[in-house]
Design brief:
- This protein is α+β, with helices and mostly antiparallel strands.
- Strands 1-2-3-6-5 form a five-stranded mixed β-barrel. It has a two-stranded antiparallel sheet with strand order 4-8.
- The protein is globular.
- It starts with a helix and ends in a 5-residue tail after the last helix.
- The C terminus is likely disordered.
Length: 187
């Protein structure tokens, strides 16, 4: 025999451990339903949770919108306000960053808010925050971004190549500018 009885026992223990650890990863995904009460920028909404009544900060999965001081930043925020403010959402969340911001795929009825931002030309696909959601949606995001670029909508209408928000943040922003917003006492 290649395997002795103690080795087989260890093998089965390892299989059980791997199975149990995979279950714990699946159980970390959660859902939020509630009403959008505010929009911070083109990819971040504030929702009052239906279950507990807490205000939750939700960052839209798979996109990055222009910062407010960037070209098209205010337009991006206004578009997200139009399609979401005062409406009920369903959010499938998979990650929390900065202790308070939840990364989620957010739906208003059948409308995916991230796809709406991409189709209007007010966001880029952002791979950093697309790793945790279902891969079957990635094609929708790529298609929406490409269509907006081809039709020269939103930021794609600019005669110069627009600067992505992640590059803009590297140059112009500091983390401590956001500490007050993320750690506000009233939340």
């Amino acid at each position: 025999f290649l395997f002795t009885l103690p080795m087989l026992n260890n093998f089965y223990k390892l299989l059980i451990l791997l199975f149990l650890s995979s279950l714990s990863v699946i159980s970390y995904a959660w859902q939020i339903s509630g009403e959008v009460v505010d929009v911070h920028d083109g990819d971040t909404i504030i929702v009052v949770d239906d279950d507990k009544g807490y205000k939750r900060i939700i960052r839209l999965s798979a996109i990055d919108a222009p910062e407010l001081l960037q070209s098209f930043g205010k337009e991006s925020k206004n578009h997200l306000l139009e399609v979401s403010l005062g409406r009920q959402i369903q959010a499938d969340c998979y990650r929390t960053i900065r202790a308070r911001v939840e990364i989620c795929r957010v739906l208003v009825g059948d409308l995916d808010l991230a796809v709406a931002q991409l189709e209007a030309g007010f966001a880029w696909r952002y791979r950093l925050y697309s790793d945790g959601h279902n891969p079957k949606y990635r094609f929708l995001y790529a298609k929406a971004e490409k269509l907006a670029e081809e039709e020269k909508k939103g930021l794609w209408s600019s005669p110069t190549k627009p600067v992505t928000p992640w590059r803009w943040r590297e140059r112009y922003e500091r983390w401590d500018d956001y500490m007050e917003w993320y750690w506000h006492k009233d939340w």
